[in-house]
Design a protein that fits this description.
The structure holds two protein chains of two kinds. By secondary structure, chain A is α+β, with helices and mostly antiparallel strands. Chain A has helices at residues 8-120, 126-141, 144-175, 188-204, 223-240, 271-274, 294-304, 329-354, and strands at 184-186, 207-213, 219-221, 245-253, 257-264, 308-313, 319-326. Chain A has eight helices and seven strands. Chain A has a five-stranded mixed β-sheet, with helices on one face. Chain A has a two-stranded antiparallel sheet with strand order 1-3. Chain B has a five-stranded parallel β-sheet, sandwiched between helices. In chain B, strand 6 and strand 7 form a beta hairpin. By secondary structure, chain B is α/β, with parallel strands linked by helices. Classes of the chains: A alpha+beta, B alpha/beta.
Chain lengths: 355, 176
């Protein structure tokens, strides 16, 4: 066996080289691993962020769902209550009417008696003048003249009140129609008027409302949901207003779209907030006063109708919100679904004829 | 006097309606129990029946269906606080409903509606009478026809006799 023994110096050099290579390789592996690890970490972080985002979106959708469901059940409740109010309202209004007739008769009877007593004053025996005086004293003491004058007013005012209750109930019924989820042709002006009736009590003491409702074509829409949009925008306008508030509501249309402008002369929206107002939970109101959902829900509803909400500054102070709704959005959608149906049907027919 | 039956489970509504009709040409009968109304209607008719829709035990449409079967000349009206479209449709289709009126009502409109209900009742009565009369005429004509056929059977040729314009009998050879 003849082996070639390397020289010690040479062998040390080789060992050293081998060691260095191994070390370098190990370092490379380590570096690659750590880079991979780092990248994986980054991916996880990214995915986490995405998940978080999805989670937020889901949470938001859920909140909106709960909110809109609550609005819907409030609507149903309101409609139920409206119906219940109609019965007592019916007899209150009717009785006020009867009361008015009765008092007219009573007053006429009493007046006739008074005139009669007056006319016989000079013809009755002296022993009875004292009785007559007593009658007249009673009439004066009971404030007859005032009562006769006031009673008509009392009844008239009560009738006005009854009429207003009836109006509110009608408004509630119109606003929260149970078939609101149904798609149907509606005139937005009617929706706005019904909504104004609902908001009347909130508006009354804070600002005046000027409406300039132009002629609009009927559009296919979910009227109840759009009323909710108008209510949100009108209430925002009211809340933006100080004393002497003024809200202008204009509607107009072109060939393709209808527009609703809601302008207020209130405090306006700060520039830095403009981009955030449609963000859910964004609110400038004190805690507990606003959900910060009104505009975001309105936006979602209008988007569903294929439209848009735009906001700009009004001339002096305040803001103008414009709701834009395409006239044909749902019509086109329906036509599209019909053609799909037709295609499916014709396919089905073809298959039938083959088999 | 025009006769009206009012049915509403809310006594206050009946009182209010009575007041509205007080001094008018309507004689008012009213009950807050729809079953009592049904029992009365078994015995007698009214010119107009105005009923609430939602009542316990017997609803307005059920009551008015009975009215329509028993008394076709009676005019039916629903007076309801509910504007439930489905109920309205059902009422109009099942009963020959004259009106579906809403609570709260307007006094003037209510009286006008009852006036036109009265006119409608008169028309129904007239058409019912005309139908009866024409039925009676029809019966009479049929009876006569049967009698003539009986004579013809007893005396063949008897009903074929012709009369001259003066009422004398034409003999066969005279006719030519």
């Amino acid at each position: 066996m003849s082996t070639l023994q390397p020289r010690p110096a040479q062998s040390y050099e080789r060992a050293f080289q081998r060691e260095r290579l191994a070390k370098k390789q190990a370092e490379e592996v380590l570096e690659r691993r750590s880079r991979e690890l780092f990248e994986a970490n980054q991916r996880i972080a990214l995915q986490y962020e995405k998940l978080q985002h999805t989670h937020d979106e889901l949470k938001l959708a859920q909140t909106q769902l709960i909110h809109s469901e609550r609005m819907a059940s409030v609507g149903q409740l309101a409609a139920g209550i409206a119906h219940e109010i109609n019965n007592p309202m019916a007899f209150v209004a009717s009785n006020l009417n009867s009361l008015q007739r009765y008092t007219t008769s009573l007053t006429s009877i009493v007046n006739t008696c008074a005139r009669f007593l007056e006319s016989i004053r000079n013809r009755i025996p002296t022993c009875m003048t004292e009785d007559l005086d007593r009658v007249e004293r009673t009439v004066a003491a009971e404030n007859y003249r005032f009562i006769v004058q006031d009673i008509a007013e009392v009844i008239q005012e009560s009738k006005k009140g009854a009429e207003r209750i009836t109006d509110i109930v009608t408004g509630l019924r119109n606003f929260s129609r149970l078939d609101e989820e149904e798609l149907k042709a509606a005139d937005l002006n009617e929706g706005i008027q019904a909504t104004l009736k609902i908001a009347h009590s909130e508006i009354r003491y804070r600002c005046s409302v000027i409406t300039e409702l132009g002629e609009l074509p009927e559009i296919m829409c979910h009227p109840g949901q759009l009323n909710q949009v108008f209510l949100n925008l009108i209430m925002n306008a009211v809340q933006a207003c100080q004393d002497n508030g003024r809200i202008e509501i204009r509607t107009y249309a072109n060939n393709t779209d209808v527009f609703v402008d809601i302008e207020d002369n209130g405090c306006g929206i700060a520039d830095e907030n403009l981009s955030a107002i449609f963000t859910p939970f964004f609110t400038t109101k004190p805690v507990g006063e606003g959900t910060g959902l009104g505009l975001s829900i309105s936006y979602a509803i209008v988007k569903k109708h294929g439209g848009d909400i735009r906001v700009r500054k009004a001339k002096n102070t305040g803001s103008i919100f414009t709701v834009l709704l395409p006239i044909e959005h749902f019509v086109k959608e329906m036509e599209a679904s019909f053609t799909v149906d037709d295609q499916l049907r014709s396919k089905g027919d073809a298959r039938d004829s083959i088999s | 006097m025009r006769e009206i039956l009012l049915v509403d489970d809310e006594q206050h509504i009946l009182n209010a309606l009575r007041r509205e009709l007080n001094g008018s040409s309507w004689s008012v009968t009213a009950t807050s129990d729809p079953r009592e109304a049904a029992a009365w209607l078994e015995m007698r008719s009214f010119d107009v029946v105005m009923s609430d829709f939602r009542m316990p035990k017997l609803n307005g449409v059920e009551l008015l269906t009975r009215v329509h079967k028993l008394w076709p000349e009676t005019v039916s009206i629903i007076l309801s606080g509910y504007t439930d479209a489905e109920a309205m449709l059902k009422a109009v289709n099942e009963v020959e409903l004259f009106r579906y009126a809403l609570k709260p009502w307007n006094s003037k409109e209510l009286l006008e509606m009852l006036d036109s209900a009265w006119r409608h009742h008169e028309e129904l009565k007239l058409s019912q009478r005309l139908i009866a009369e024409s039925n009676w005429r029809n019966d009479k004509a049929l009876r006569r026809e049967a009698e003539i056929q009986k004579f013809e059977k007893q005396e063949p040729g008897l009903t074929q006799v012709e009369f001259s314009p003066t009422g004398t009998i034409w003999l066969a050879d005279e006719a030519h």
